[in-house]
Amino acid sequence: MFALSIGLDNDYQNDPHAKKDVIDPSGDAHSIKSGEKKWQIFLYRRSRFETDDGFQALNGIGSLLIHCIDAFPPRFKDYEASKEEAKERLRTPMRELKDRFQRKALLRAFMMKSFFNGGEVNYLTIHHNNAFKVYRNEDIVRALGDALTVENSKSASRKGLPEQKVIFKYDGHNVGELEMRNDSEQHYGEVRFNVNIPVFMDLLGAYSTTIFKQHKAYSSDVTAYGKAAKTFGNWVL
């Protein structure tokens, strides 16, 4: 739908497995997000963190994510037989991740890698309230770095264990969660990063008079904000 809104052909095809959902006429890449509740920013297995230089360059973040995966036995059936032992092991790398993310520079670098594959994707374009909102990658990362606090999860019950997730918070509410997905043989030993859409949009709204103050309407249903107001849509000039 966004592709059509910016004048691309009806038969435009994107790569469903890439973060480059749409390439605009300027050659810039957009990650397109929509929905009302959650976005899955990534869901990666061990091999991704081993081979992706971007994660390995994040001052130990890639290695810690591998440690999270390695807290669990290789086979799902073994995990089912000893869940508490694995969850106890997970506490250490999750706690270390939270501690690393107290450094704002590292937090911003992680967000740039997670949302934009290290800057390979130029824009986050969000379909919200029946309109497309276009944001430059560095503006999104700046807002997240400024606004977020980082904590570990607490136990949900007396029998539960704390420090099973890294929680990214804004104004006391969960913006995102970095966690293990171990719910089936198909999805076992994976790290998932989810974002809570309503809180994320509230965060962006809080910067509407600063980072995203400048805005420019490309059309009736597409508006660019912040630095994107200067760079997006220049092909029509």
**Helix count, per DSSP?**
10
- Give the topology string: H per helix, E per strand: HEEEHHHHHHEEHEEEEHEEH
What is the straight-line distance between the termini? 22 Å
Helix content: 25-40%
Please list the strands of the largest sheet in the order they lie side by side: 1-2-4-5-11-10
Strand content: 25-35%
Overall residue-averaged pLDDT value: 94
Shape: elongated
Rg from Cα: 19 Å
Question: What would you say about this model in short?
Answer:
The chain has 237 residues and is of the alpha+beta class. 36% of the residues lie in helices and 26% in strands. The two termini are 22 Å apart.
Descriptive account of the structure:
By secondary structure, the protein is α+β, with helices and mostly antiparallel strands. The chain has one domain. It is 36% helix and 26% strand. The protein contains ten helices and eleven strands. It has a six-stranded mixed β-sheet with strand order 1-2-4-5-11-10. It has a five-stranded antiparallel β-sheet with strand order 3-9-8-7-6. A hairpin with a 5-residue loop joins strand 1 and strand 2. Helix 4 packs antiparallel against helix 6 and helix 7 crosses helix 8. The mean pLDDT is 94.
